[in-house]
Give the backbone structure.
Amino acid sequence: MITVQASDFIRILPQEILSAFAILVMVFEPFLPSSRKVVLGWFSLLGVVAAGAAAVRTSYSLGPAFNASIAADPFSIYFIALFLLVAALCLLGSFNYLQRDNINHGEFYALILMGTVGMCFMAASTELIMIFLGLEISSLSTYVLAGFKRHDGLSNEASLKYFLLGSFATAFFLYGIAFVYGLTGTTNLMTLSERLSRTGTGGTPLLWVAIVLMFIGLGFKVSTAPFHVWTPDVYQGAPAPVTAFLSVGPKAAAFAVILRIFLGAFHAVGSVSFQMLWLSAILTMVVGNLAALWQSNVKRLLAYSAIAHAGYVLVGIAAGSAEGVSAVLFYLTVYALMNVGAFILIAPIAGTGERALRVEDYTGLGYTRPGVAACLTVFMLSLGGIPTTAGFLGKFYLFRAAIHAHLIGLVIVAVLTSVVSVYYYLRLVVVMYMREGQPQATSEPLPLALRVALATSVIGIFVLGLFPLLLKKKGEAEASPRHTKLAQVR
Amino acid sequence: MLEAYLPVLVHFLVVLALGLIILGLSAWVGVKRPSPEKLAPYECGMPPVGDARERFSISFYLVGMLFILFDVEVAFLFPWAVVYKSLKWPGFLEMFLYIAILLAGYLYIWKKGALDWSR
Amino acid sequence: MIWLSQHPLSVLTFLPLAGAAVIAFLRRESADRIRGVALAFSLATFALALKLFLAFSPNQPGMQFVEYRPWISSPPIGYHLGIDGLSVLLILLSAFLTPLAILASWASITSHVKEFFLFLLALETGMIGVFVSLDLFLFFIFWEAMLIPMYFLIGVWGHERRVYAAVKFILYTMAGSALMLVGIIYLYTVTGTFDLEVIEGLVAGGFAGLSGSAQTWLFLAFFLAFAIKVPMFPFHTWLPDAHVEAPTAGSVILAGVLLKMGTYGMLRFCLPLFPQASREFAPLIVVLAIVGILYGALVAMVQPDMKKLVAYSSVAHLGFVVLGIFTFTMAGIQGAIYQMCNHGVSTGALFILVGMLYDRRHTRQIKEFGGLATTLPIYSAFFMIVALSSLGLPMLNGFVGEFLIILGAFHVRVIYAVLAAVGVVLAAVYLLWMYQRVFFGEVTNEKNRKLPDLTDREKVILVSVVFVILWMGVYPQPFLRRLDLSTAHVIHRVKHGPASYALQRTPPPAEPAR
């Protein structure tokens, strides 16, 4: 008999609050005239803030919940905070966008909130079925969000592609879960970890199949190399604020799951996971960075860059140590700041209907819109990993963990591909500052909400770039309790 | 380990063989006397006219989807009904919340005009 | 104020950045005020650097004016600054060249003046930061961050092929430094610290964590980054592009300071940290350096473009510096350091002179000129002095450095000295031949007849340069005196560094010094 206690509900308080706000937004939506839908946006933001406060409350009563299917541990709190940050930035970036592109429906905000709920559950679950549910909740919301521009062909294509390939990938994940259950008789990660370590290292070929299947499912979500083909099309077609959300949220959530499953539950069969991660990291970095070189569309360029960044994160995971986990957590936050910043900034530059998206459209932007161009430059430099920005320190910590784990070959590939990446990040800077001409990009002033979001990202990038320990200390705390066993992964 | 599944395999083969045998027998032994009525897609009912891939009003799909949605969710009431005595008040509250969320959804589609056939 | 006077290196490093911040708040339209502020801050930095140079005690071994603050505790990264004889000279050089670069671009930079001077001052902070950092991580941050302003200076204010040159410059340099980053992190994982002095101490004490092959790989990782920056033959191809396309100020800083960072890095990191590998690779590097000297000189000789000629002469001059360093002799290394400064002053001045001509005629083709000595007498005189200093005429600065380097090379192998001397002769050939074609003879091009001679601003620049050239040529003692201990230190490290390391893998948990 499963007993439910009051503490269980406190341990999922942020998710509850987000869900409640999402439902309320849906209920209010039909009652508001089109001109005042933005009220729902601010209301959703309030929900995110409230969920943040709830997360603080939850952090005072950590522990397992709902029969150990969910864990409120520092790890999950960290990720929940990250998702809330991403949601808040995307909300701030979308208010004006929705009005401008005439898709001003309150459902947008509700879907963002529900997607966040799903991601929070993914990071907090210690039970494969719950992880799957979280994955589905977040996926369904994002499928709809990708196609939110209903009258735009590209957006429809993005939604459909994301849905078809996404459901295919979740099927792989589910298939993997089924295998795991068949082999071990449990879907609980803790029990799984115990049973696997009792049966000794190595595992059976059937277990390897299960591991690979689950990795394929998650690899799709984080867009690692062989499973990345959907990424550019979806990122290009989806509305820019949604792309911002997609490129960070589900990705970070899937990384949280990868950490929990492959470094936590499967640590007894670490060598299989390790080989898979190693190969995938190399492929992802090479494919992402090389493909980005040839892109002429800014959104596709950033999509390939997002693929490449997944590769860097995999380097940290392949290190398989507590140090690596901590580096991954830090990197994901940094990545969230710079990537969300870049994508929500693209929206106002591209103008109504997102027409100015080619790299050449940015010509001369540095002089017509110095503030916008300066922000974009900061994001690009940070993505490229130039020192004094957080992007550099993020990579530095990842590489340090990998070198500690003697993955020197992997790190050399990583640094060389990241030099390649500097080329395409600087292409934007080149056209903005070094080419003569009138920009195609529009020049309406940035709305206040967007300014707030951008300022948060830029300041965050510099603060974390100079004083990483403000966050890194947290990252280390998250990495230690849950993953102490990780050190012996390989 | 796989030996345990041997009966399943045998079962599978027997079923396959049986099906093939029955179909084969009826094709071989049966008497065929076709007539226009017998060759029609339906022996009774309307004769098919025109293209089957006709466009339906979007409302059909909408109603279909909504029906499945609410129908499936109501199905959750059955397991609850079996154990609601042992769940006591918390169980009641939870189901109350569940119905309330369903109601919110209902309110949403109502106000959105999804139930308004003439639109 | 007391805090400021107790932390002269921090103040020196960040004073230009403060200037950049001030400029950021000035109005775009008031271009002259922006230029004035930039000049004031760069002059203040120079004054401070001069004060530091005078206060630097030549008799005290080790680092001086040391500052240490823990910065990031995990991994242990310290804000660790300090200077020795090597860096004090290069800091002085950087601080000297920046005001000149500002003055040189006073009238020639007319678009986006604010951003230009902002980047120039930010660049100065980066340069000085590289020379004062004693923490590998901090060093790397300055080293990389400095590329961004330089990239913009070339890319925005450069000439026709500026974008190509800027991107090539940044990608070449980053490719090298990326591997250096791997090396730095690896060094950290075996020693447990980023602190240069601690690592150096460990290495000198026969630290067991570094195997011979690891040392070789680390040496290569560091050396490649520095060799690209210098640039040594065959990694030099970015240099002509970057120099030619950069605006005058950019070329001055590039040639004057940025190239020196490569040779500085070799002296500061490669030699003391990886002595055995340095000794093993020295013959190869010396040969490459000599190839660089001869190749640079021969290519410079056939250049039709004055700026390109000066650029290739840099390849040759830096070949001298590398040659001097890898002789591992007192004379060679002292000469190398001295030559670094000479090259900074002389080549910087050559770029300024070419830039002045370009401002007047908007071309740098040698064949466009001829007989300028009659139309521009003062300019021609200055050009002569600088050219002579660059080719190493006795009594001028270039001579001292080249003489010491050749002396050092002589001790290693006579043939090295002979080939280097051939390089000196070739330098005389290409510089004087260029001088002859540009300044002597009849005025062949009518456009050259009515060129205005130097303005007062330009005279100020050139007089100060010539003053330094003469001083360094006639009385090098104040400079060389400050180098003695540092040079001896480096030589001691590289010559008596442990021959091979035991193959143990137990990094001692090292605490940063102090």
About this structure: The CA atoms of residues 116 and 309 of chain A lie 21 Å apart. The interface with chain C takes residues 367, 381, 386-388, 392, 396, 399-400, 403-404, 408, 411-412, 415-416, 418-419, 422-423, 426, 430, 433-435, 467-469, 472-473, 476 of chain A (CB under 8 Å). Chain A is about 75% helix and 0% strand.
